[in-house]
Design goal:
Layout (H helix, E strand, L loop, with lengths): L1 H24 L6 H20 L2 E2 L10 E6 L14 H7 L7 E6 L17 H10 L3 E6 L6 H10 L3 E6 L7 E7 L3 E2 L4 E10 L7 E8 L2 E9 L6 E9 L5 E10 L10 E8 L6 E5 L5 H13 L3 E8 L2 E4 L9 H9 L3 E7 L5 H9 L2 E6 L2 H6 L11 E7 L2 H5 L11 E2 L12 E4 L5 E10 L2 E6 L5 H5 L3 H18 L11 E2 L3 E3 L4 E4 L7 E8 L4 E7 L5 E4 L5 E11 L1 H4 L4 E9 L30 E2 L4 H20 L4
Parallel strand pairs: 2-3, 2-4, 4-5, 7-13, 14-15, 14-17, 17-18, 18-23, 25-31
Antiparallel strand pairs: 1-32, 6-8, 8-11, 9-10, 9-12, 12-13, 15-16, 19-20, 19-21, 21-22, 22-23, 24-26, 26-29, 27-28, 27-30, 30-31
Length: 641
C-alpha cells in the first residue's frame, strides 16, 4: 500500500511539473496543451517503470516464471563413495513443463583474474532470473556455493523464491590454493616459497605431502595436516635460485591418500632470475658516484627490481653489481626499451642513437644532462655549465611537499648547473654567492610520458652525509619517483609477452605489445609435449592483444612484429615461457546443508501470486520512445528548442 501511494504521488508530481513547464516557463504557443500532455505521459511512464508493477499473464503467457539452475562446476563431475556423480543425479532432478527455464552456473566462465576457476557463483544467475521476471529459482547443486554471502543478501532483496536441491555428497580431497614465489631474484639467491593448502571436511586432520618442484626437480617438501573445511594452512619452504639467468618454473603439488579430485592438486608460478626486462634500468655513460647512491634508493621507494650498467666502451656495458656478463649495444637497447623506469646518467650529445630514441619514447625517464647538447636531447636549451658551489634554496610543484621542512643550509652544494635559457626547471632551485639562482630539476609531461631532467651534479653528496643529507636525498627521490609513477596505468614496460606467465587453459590469453600498438604480432608457440602453432595477433591502440586459447601444459613462445612496417623493419623478436593450467579451488568451499532449510525469499512472493514485471515487456519502452519522439518533433515544428 505504501509503494502504491508513493507511486501515485510521484505520478501527480510529474503531471504538475509538465503543466508548470509548458504554462509558465515556455512561450505561449498554440498546442502547448498537447505538448504538456505528452511530457506528462512520458514522466508518468518512467514512474511506472521505476515502480515495476506486475502485468497479468493469462494463459501462462510471458517469460518462464520458474528457473531451474544446475551447477556445472567441476565438482559435479566427481563421483564419491556412491559411484554416481552429482551431475548424473542432477539430470534426474530436473522438472519438466513449458513454464520452466533451465540454465547453469559455475562453469568455465567463472574465473578470477589469475585464471583460477572460482567455483559455483550463483548471485549473477539470481540477478538475471529476477530481471527476466522469474519468481521461483530451483538450484540443483552439491551445495558448494562460492558467493554464499552475496546470495543470502540477494535473497533478502529480490522477490525470488530460492530453493536448493542437494545432489552432492562428502568427498575426500586436498588442494593447493596458492603458490607465492618472488617475481624476480638474483642467481644463487636463497628464497622462501609459500604454499597454501586446503581440504574438504572428509580430509580434515589427515596428513598430506606437499612437494615443491623447481624446473621439474624436487626443491623441497613437507608434511602438513589438513585444516577444517573452509580454512587453509600456509606452508613455507626454503629453496635456492639456480646460478643461470632466465625464468624458473615452480610447481607445488599436494598428495593425499584417497584424494578423489586432481583438478586442484597443482599450482605453478615463475621467478625471473637476473631479469633484463621490466626493470628500473640505470645506464651511466661515465664513471660517477651518483648511480651507486641512486640505485638502492630508487629500488626501495619504487619496489621495482633495479639494475645498472656502466659504459666501458663504444659497444660494452658493464653491470654495476658485478653479476652477469658485459652487454653489447644491441642487448642494452633491449633492456632500456623494456624498462619500466629508465635512468640515463651522464647524457651528452655523444650518447648512442638507440639510447636517445629510448629516452624519448619511454613512459618514465630520469635524465642527468652533462652538457648543453645532452640537455637539448631532452628538450631544454641551456647555457654552458656554471662554476662554483650552488646551494639548494627552494622546491616547487610535486617536489614541494616531498622536501617540505628540509633545512637547505645543512645540505652539501651542487656543482656545474646548466641554467635553462628560457627559465623553467623550477622544481628545485639552487643559489650561489651573490644571489644568482638557477633551476636544476625540470619535470616534463607530454602525451602520457613523464620525464625528470636534472641539470646539476653532486646530488649523491646529500646521500653521503648522514642525518639531514640522507633524509633529504631519500625524500627527493621519493618525490621524483612518485611523480613519475603516478600515471594511472599498469604499464610494465615495453616488453612483448603474456600479461600473466601462468594463465588459464582453454581461454584467450591476454598479451601485451606496447611497442606494436595498432599493428600486428606473429606469435609462434611450441608445446613441451610437441607441436607448434603460429598465430597473428591484431594489437589494439592500447598495446594489448589476445592469443587464442591453448591446451593445458608448458609452452615456449617467440614473437615478432609484422606491422606496422616501421616496427617490422627493425626485425625485433621476443621469446619466453608460458604455463597453462586448469585449476579450480571449488573444494575450498564447504558443503552448506543449511541452504536446504530455505523455503521462500525474503520478500515472501510466490510465482502464483504475481504476473510479469512491467520492465520485462517491450511495449512500455517502445511507447516511451514514441512519446519522446513525438514531443521533440512537435516542439521543433512549434519553434521551441
Amino acid at each position: 500500500m505504501t509503494a502504491l501511494l508513493v507511486t501515485v504521488v510521484a505520478a501527480l508530481a510529474a503531471v504538475g511539473y509538465a503543466l508548470y513547464v509548458y504554462r509558465l516557463r515556455e512561450l505561449p504557443i498554440r498546442g502547448r496543451g498537447v505538448l504538456a500532455a505528452l511530457r506528462a505521459a512520458i514522466l508518468v511512464g518512467v514512474v511506472l517503470l521505476l515502480a515495476d508493477f506486475a502485468l497479468p499473464t493469462p494463459g501462462g503467457g510471458g517469460p518462464p516464471r520458474q528457473w531451474v539452475v544446475v551447477d556445472s562446476s567441476p565438482s559435479m563431475a566427481v563421483a564419491g563413495a556412491s559411484g554416481e556423480t552429482p551431475g548424473a543425479r542432477a539430470l534426474n532432478a530436473l522438472p519438466g513443463g513449458s513454464d520452466v527455464r533451465v540454465t547453469s552456473f559455475g562453469g568455465a566462465g567463472d574465473r578470477a583474474a589469475d585464471g583460477v576457476l572460482t567455483g559455483s557463483r550463483l548471485a549473477p544467475v539470481l540477478r538475471r532470473a529476477a530481471e527476466s521476471g522469474a519468481r521461483e529459482v530451483q538450484v540443483v547443486t552439491d551445495l558448494r556455493i562460492a558467493d554464499l554471502t552475496e546470495v543470502t543478501a540477494l535473497r533478502e532483496t529480490l522477490a525470488l523464491d530460492v530453493r536448493f536441491v542437494d545432489v552432492g555428497e562428502d568427498l575426500r580431497s586436498a588442494g593447493v590454493g596458492g603458490l607465492s614465489v618472488p617475481a624476480t631474484g638474483r642467481a644463487g639467491e636463497e628464497v622462501e616459497v609459500e604454499v597454501e593448502v586446503f581440504g574438504t571436511a572428509s580430509a580434515e586432520g589427515s596428513d598430506a605431502r606437499v612437494v615443491l618442484e623447481r624446473d621439474g626437480e624436487v626443491a623441497g617438501e613437507a608434511v602438513v595436516r589438513i585444516p577444517g573445511a573452509g580454512r587453509s594452512v600456509r606452508v613455507p619452504l626454503a629453496s635456492t635460485l639456480p646460478d643461470a639467468a632466465g625464468p624458473v618454473l615452480w610447481r607445488a603439488r599436494v598428495t593425499l591418500a584417497g584424494d578423489v579430485f586432481e583438478g586442484d592438486d597443482v599450482r605453478s608460478a615463475f621467478t625471473e632470475v637476473d631479469p633484463l626486462e621490466g626493470l628500473l634500468a640505470v645506464v651511466s655513460l661515465r664513471p660517477d658516484w651518483e648511480p651507486r647512491f641512486l640505485m638502492p634508493v630508487l629500488e626501495r621507494v619504487t619496489g621495482i627490481p633495479t639494475r645498472g650498467w656502466l659504459r666501458v666502451g663504444d659497444d660494452a656495458f658493464l653491470p654495476m653489481d658485478g653479476s652477469g656478463g658485459v652487454l653489447d649495444a644491441a642487448a642494452m637497447a633491449r633492456v632500456v626499451e623494456s624498462a619500466r623506469l629508465l635512468v640515463v646518467h651522464g647524457l651528452t650529445g655523444a650518447a648512442p642513437d638507440w639510447l636517445m630514441r629510448a629516452q624519448a619514447s619511454s613512459r618514465r625517464v630520469v635524465a642527468f644532462a652533462a652538457d648543453p647538447a645532452g640537455a637539448e636531447g631532452v628538450g631544454l636549451e641551456t647555457d654552458q655549465p656554471r662554476n662554483g658551489e650552488w646551494y639548494p634554496v627552494a622546491a616547487s610543484g610535486p617536489l614541494a611537499a616531498a622536501l617540505a621542512g628540509v633545512p637547505w643550509s645543512d645540505l652539501p652544494p651542487l656543482r656545474s648547473p646548466l641554467p635553462p635559457d628560457a627559465g623553467g626547471a623550477e622544481a628545485l632551485v639552487v643559489e650561489r654567492a651573490g644571489g644568482v639562482r638557477a633551476g636544476v630539476i625540470d619535470l616534463q609531461e607530454a602525451e602520457g610520458r613523464r620525464r625528470a631532467v636534472l641539470l646539476a651534479e653532486g646530488f649523491w653528496r646529500w646521500g653521503f652525509r648522514p642525518g639531514v643529507g640522507t633524509d633529504a636525498y631519500d625524500r627527493l627521490w621519493s618525490g621524483v619517483a612518485g611523480w613519475l609513477l603516478a600515471t594511472g596505468d599498469d604499464d610494465t614496460g615495453g616488453g612483448v609477452g603474456p600479461l600473466d606467465r601462468v594463465a588459464a587453459a582453454d581461454r584467450p590469453i591476454a598479451w601485451r605489445a606496447p611497442g606494436v600498438a595498432g599493428g600486428a604480432l606473429e606469435v609462434v608457440t611450441t608445446a613441451d609435449a610437441g607441436g607448434t602453432r603460429t598465430d597473428t595477433l591484431a594489437v589494439g591502440g592500447d598495446g594489448r592483444a589476445r592469443l587464442p586459447a591453448l591446451e593445458p601444459g608448458g609452452y615456449g613462445w617467440t614473437a615478432r612484429a609484422v606491422a606496422p612496417d616501421s616496427v617490422a623493419q627493425l626485425d625485433r623478436s621476443w621469446s619466453g615461457r608460458l604455463e597453462l593450467e586448469r585449476h579450480t579451488d571449488e573444494f575450498r568451499w564447504p558443503r552448506d546443508t543449511t541452504l536446504l532449510a530455505w523455503e521462500t525469499g525474503g520478500a515472501g512472493v510466490r510465482a502464483a501470486d504475481v504476473g510479469r514485471p512491467l520492465r520485462t515487456s517491450p511495449w512500455p519502452w517502445l511507447l516511451l520512445i514514441g512519446l519522446l519522439a513525438a514531443e521533440w518533433i512537435l516542439r521543433r515544428r512549434s519553434g521551441l528548442r
